[in-house]
Structure formats: structure tokens, C-alpha cells
Amino acid sequence: MPKGTVTQKIIERHLVEGTMTPGEPIAIKIDQTLTQDATGTMAYLEFESIGIDRVRTELSVSYVDHNLLQTDFKNADDHRFLQSIAARYGIYFSRPGNGICHQVHLERFSRPGRTLLGSDSHTPTAGGCGMLAIGAGGMDVALAMAGQPFHLRMPHVVGIHLTGALPEWVSAKDVILELLRRLSVKGGIGKVMEYFGPGVKTLSVPDRAAIANLGTELGATSTVFPSDDVTREFLRAQDRVEVWEEILPDPDAHYSQVIEIELDKMEPMAACPSSPDNVVPIREIEGKKVAQVIVGSCANSSFRDIQVVSKAIKGKTVHPDVSFEINPGSRQVLEMAAKEGLLMDLIHAGARIHQSGCLGCIGMGQAPPTDSISLRTFTRNFPGRSGTKPDYVYLVSPETAVAAAITGEITDPRRLGKAPTLEEPREYIVNDSSIIAPPEDGSTVEIVRGPNIKPLPKFDPMPDDLKLTVILKVGDNITTDHIMPAGSKILPLRSNCPAISEYCFSAVDPEFAKRAKEGGPWAVVGGENYGQGSSREHAALAPRYLGVRAKIVKGFARIHKANLINFGIVPLTFKDPADYERIEQGACITIHGIREALMNGAQEVTATLDDGTEIGLILELSNRDREILTKGGLLNWVRDRV
Ligand code: MIC
Ligand code: SF4
Fold first, then answer.
1. Are 27 and 151 within 8 A, CB to CB?
2. Distance between CA 40 and CA 207 in Å, rounded?
3. What CATH class has 273-414?
4. Are 115 and 134 in contact (CB under 8 A)?
5. CA 84 to CA 588: how far, in whole Å?
6. pLDDT score of 639
7. Residue ranges matching CATH 3.30.499.10 in the chain
8. Which CATH superfamily includes the segment(s) 6-265?
9. Which pLDDT score, from 0 to 100, does residue 246 have?
10. Could you tell me which of 175, 239, 228, 177 has the C-alpha nearest to residue 205?
């Protein structure tokens, strides 16, 4: 077994089941968990139904950053629910306005060598600080809070060898965009991307975090950086040097594949509409008129990012045709920007300053105008995610963002002249007053529930046979934004399964929920990388609630596949991908003996079509997955064991 990468060292310390052979099922101990409000309400309802008295992790934190718009009682009620349930069960609570979960976690809680499981797909951001941080569905995080290990497949460790240093006006975002260009949104499936080589020390922890963050868009299980002197300096500046430990790869560490990146050769890049891997150099798209520029999201809203845009625009004004918006990543970033005068220069130039949070990244406001280009430093530009349909969103670095804010068109930032000198703070302002620690004993805390919080539905076990109708057939790279859209109208329904299910697949088929309620049980057929993107388990919960019992696709994204299993939907892949053409929407298929096949460990089942012909389907599942599916989902499985 090859050892000696940082990833393998951390996994080895945490391994509780399985062997470290890439592709094999393993289970690891989880030290820390995080949730955000949009996935957290459901995760805490699930945790509560497990029935233990206090979290069993080293640290669990509940953040409120997604649902900040309060257009009625729903989100405000959820914030109160989250605060009270955190106090009840021993969880730290980061208040609305304190910042994006990944940014705040990096600043205040990240810890080299530890494991973190978060109910948000960008949890790997903390890999910038030498952690193994993984995104998962809310139910998996609930189990981790209950002290259960996390089950995954041992990843292949890909080494990204960095040499040189980044040129002026080029930053971490351009590096990860270049990797997305080379590898695509499915290039990281089943892998951890680990950075090494002499170029690593030229990147600050916030730079590393930006790269680790977007590793999610590669479909990677996680991204890991070593913990070195740069990490120590960052933790010292955060007044947390005591949690530092050095974790470096061994000189003979073995990577399953090595990818070379010469930082000197990097240039400003953009992911064009409407996929994070549709990447080209900025010079190829210069001159396009821009209506909106936003600096923010968990990818690029650190103090470093605000510093570069503020210094670049100082003394200039925002172009009259551009709405230039700043969403600082955290309260700490905002306080630092205020103290250093950076905020003043931004305000003076005409920028619109918002509170710290996800905001437009998840369609909570900031929708761009019709038929216009929006340049964003965000993570995702999936179609319609901005709230405007159709939309033309380009993902760029803060440098490229500010260049367009000044000129009103897509501009290579290297045209702006001398790049500003950036300083990493020797000391960040540390003010944890918006992170509320739980009481020693929370047993008497009353949990406050608003009327929008509905009990979890109960699901029946797997029947002997599945007789299904194909309710929907979709193509490749379907995202969880297609399956269960977000945005200001739908996000407040995350703790209300019947209500949110009405929007299931509404982005591809507005009649889906209506049709689903008229019959069933159903199957959905899809292509490659099905379910990429967000960790939202509602993309499994809602279909299951509407009677979907199987998904048959060419390939699954990791988190979505795990969520399907957790909610009792069988994930099947075509043995021969060409058979995708043989199943049409409306077809009836029968899988005889599915329950038996799950229990016996069968690797393959046969689906019989209406015309009597057969199709071979693969069941790639661990023994635990099979038990969970047989019981009808993870909650049934856990309840039976407790
Ligand atoms: C996202 O960026 O898509 C989200 C919103 O942060 C999701 C989580 C969610 O849907 O609540 C994610 O990335 O997991
Ligand atoms: Fe929030 Fe956007 Fe990051 Fe998701 S990707 S956590 S919505 S900032």
C-alpha cells in the first residue's frame, strides 16, 4: 500500500474500517463537523431523531450564511431553531452576518491533521490549512455528530506538483480554473487532489483555500495542502498557533498520478457560461460588455481578495454601466477591511457593500439583468443559478473582476499597470462574539420550532421487485441545481419536505412534481456525472418523497450517490453505456429480485423492458450501502441499530 502523502497520513490516523486500497470502502473517524442553514435544519432534525443527548465530536459548528433574506417568517424562524438546537446539543452557533461557513471555519476552527465533515460541498476549503475536509449530505453529518465514522471509498491521491510563483495580476483562482480546463467537472471523481512541490510555499493559506474550494468543481472527494511554516504563520495571525502541527508528504510519497503546474506560466482565466470547466484565457474573451461584477463567495472573499480589488480601484470609479458588488466572506474580513481603510476606497469608488454571506452565489438576491454578462468570483455558474434565465455568468479571479468593474468590459487585469502590493496581516482581528458557545449542559434548553418545520417523512423498506416507470430522462452532467433548485423562493422550504418537493426537477421539467403525484413508483434515467454540484440531500429526499425508487445513469457524482442511498433510492449504472439509448421516458422496467440482489451482494441485476428485452445494470455498493437500501434509508437503518 503506497503511503506517505499528506492525505494518506491523515486517513491512516483516522481509519476505523477497511484497508487503504484506492477504490475500496473505508470508514474514518470524524473530528469536526460543520453545517450551514440551508442543509442544517434537515441535518439537525435527523440528528435529533437519532436520539442522543449531545454531539460526540471534538467540535461541531452550525453556520447561518445561505438563507439571509428575510422576506417572511420562514428563514428568521429557521435561524432561531438552529440557534436553540445548537445550544441544546453542544454545538457552536455562528450567527447570521458572521460569514460564510467555509471562510469562518478556515479562520477560526481549521486544524491541521484533523478530519472535518460538512453538509456543504465546498467543505474541502479547509484543506488549505492541512485538514482532510469532506462534503457530505446532512444525514451523514448527523451520524458523524452522533460519533459514527464516515463511510467512503479510499480515494486515489493525485499529486499536483507546483513550481515557480504566480506572476502579477494572476492569483489562486486562475490556477484552479486552469485545472478545471484540463480535467473537467468529472476529472476528480474518486480522487483527492494533493498539492506539493516548491511552489506551495509561495501560496498563502487563503490562496490555498481558494484552490481547495474549487477542487469540489472537479468532482474531487477533497483537496489537501501540507501544513507547513506558511500554515503556522496563518494560525499565529489568527491567534491559534497552538493547533498547528507540521504535516508534510514524505520525499518518496507515491501519487496515483502527477500533474505539473508551473505557476509562472499561469495567466488570468475565466469559466464561461454555464459550467465551471468551460474555461478559456481572459485574453480570448476581452471586450465583452459587462453589466454586473461581484466579488464574494467561499471561493474568493478573503481579506486578501478584498485587499486586491480595493487597492486596484482606489482613486478610480466604477464604470457607469456596471453594478459592482462586494460580499465580504466573514465579519473578520469586513472588520479588517474597515480597519485598513480598504472599505472606504471601495465605497468611494461606487461599490455596493453587502453583509457577509453566500448572497447571490445561491440566488439570494443579486440576480443580473436580462441578456447581460455577470462576472463573479464565485464557485458555480450552472444555468439559471443566478436567478435570471437565461444567464451569462463568468467565473473569474478578484483581479479580473475589478478590471471589468473599472472598464465596463471583460479586461485582462494585466492591462491595469503595476499590480498592487498585497500584505498578509501579521495579526487578524479576532472577535468571536458572533460565535456562540453552547452551555455545558444543554438538556433544559427549549428548541424553538416555527410552523415551516415539518416532521421528516417515513419511508418503507425495499420491496422484493421494482416495477418502475421512467418518469424522466436527462443527459450528462445534471447538477443538483437541476434536481432541486435553490434561490430565494425555494431555499426557505428546506425544512418542509412536502413543500420543497413541489419544485423537484422544476428546472428541467416544470410538470415533474404534478406527474409524479399521479402515479409511481418511478425511475429517472441520466447520463455521466449525474448529481454533480451541491451536497443538498433534498435532491434525493424530494424525489423519494415523490415516489422515485431507482436512478439509472452512466455515472454518479459522489455526494449525490451517497444521498440517494441514504434516502433509499437505488443507484444503478448501465453495464453497457450504449443501453442509455434503449430506455425512453415513459418506458416501464421491471427489476425482479432487487431486494434479494441487494442482500446477496450481487454486483449486477437485470432490468426487463416492456418489449421483453433486457438490460444489465451495475450495483456498485458496499455491504453497508446494501443494508441501508434494504431498510429503505439511513434513518430506518440507524433506528434499528440504536
Ligand atoms: C451550493 O453552493 O450549491 C450550496 C448551496 O452551498 C450547496 C449546499 C446547499 O444546497 O444547501 C453545496 O454546495 O453543497
Ligand atoms: Fe455559499 Fe456559494 Fe459557497 Fe455554496 S458555493 S457555500 S452558496 S458561497
1. yes
2. 27
3. alpha beta
4. yes
5. 47
6. 80
7. 6-265, 273-414
8. Aconitase, domain 3 (3.30.499.10)
9. 98
10. 228
C-beta atoms surrounding 642 within 10 Å:
10
Ligand nearest the Cα atom of residue 360:
2
CATH code, residues 466-641: 3.20.19.10
* Interacting residues of 391 by C-beta distance below 8 A, sequence separation 6+: 273, 274, 368, 374, 381, 383, 384, 385
3-state secondary structure 269-329: EEECCCCCCCEEEHHHCCCCECCEEEECCCCCCCHHHHHHHHHHHCCCCCCCCCEEEECCC
Q: For residues 243 and 235, what is the distance between their CA atoms, to the nearest angstrom?
A: 8
> Is 362 near ligand 2, meaning CB less than 6 Å away?
yes
Instruction: Give the DSSP H/E element, type plus range, for residue 604.
Output: strand 604-609
Residue 641: what pLDDT? 77
CA dihedral 544, 548, 554, 559 (to 10 degrees): 0
| Protein residue whose Cα sits closest to atom 7 of ligand 2 | 362
pLDDT at residue 166, as a whole number: 98
Strand positions, DSSP E, 164-241: 191-196, 222-224
> Is residue 369 classed as helix, strand or coil in its secondary structure?
coil
In the chain, which stretches have pLDDT less than 50?
1-2
State the DSSP H helix or E strand holding residue 433, giving kind and residue range, or none if neither.
Answer: none
The CATH 3.20.19.10 portion of the chain extends over 466-641
Residue 195 CA to ligand 2 center (angstroms) comes to 23
Rounded CA-CA distance 618/35 in Å is: 33
What is the crossing angle of helices 623-631 and 558-566, to 10°?
40
Q: Whose CA is nearest to atom 10 of ligand 1?
A: 536
Q: Which residue has the cell 455596493?
A: 352
Q: Where do we find the cell 474550494?
A: 213
Residue 482 in contact with ligand 1 by CB distance below 6 A: no
